Give the backbone structure.
Amino acid sequence: MFGERLKLLRNEKMLKQSDIAEALGLTRHSISNYELNEREPDYKTLEQLSNYFDVTVDYLLGRSNIRNPYLISSLQSDSKEHSKNEIENILSETQKMLQDGTDLTLEGEPAAPEAIQSIIDGIDLSLEMAKRRNKKKQE
């Protein structure tokens, strides 16, 4: 699971293995071995990767589908302090969690892909409505 997550994160940011290796002081070969699940990183490397991609170690290891719960909790703690971009980032993370999630349920039943897509579409629609209302209020 770790290798798949690492590769997914790297591809999302359109990075090469050598980009990550250089940023973290590793070799490209090490990154390749991690992605192929041929080697496991030590704790320090896990922590560096977690910080680099702004995800939790649990997400990297596949123990959680939540990339960064701190983004969500920070919005809940003081929503008036967050800018439009931060709200969009949080909603984007939520959409990624829904898309990446396996074994998601809805009302106790396995969630159909169509149901998950409906939720994602609803988030997009709600965000657009909020942007329009916000724009009108500022005019």
Q: What stands out?
A: The two ends are 49 Å apart (CA to CA). Residues 2-61 form a domain with the 434 Repressor (Amino-terminal Domain) fold (CATH 1.10.260.40).
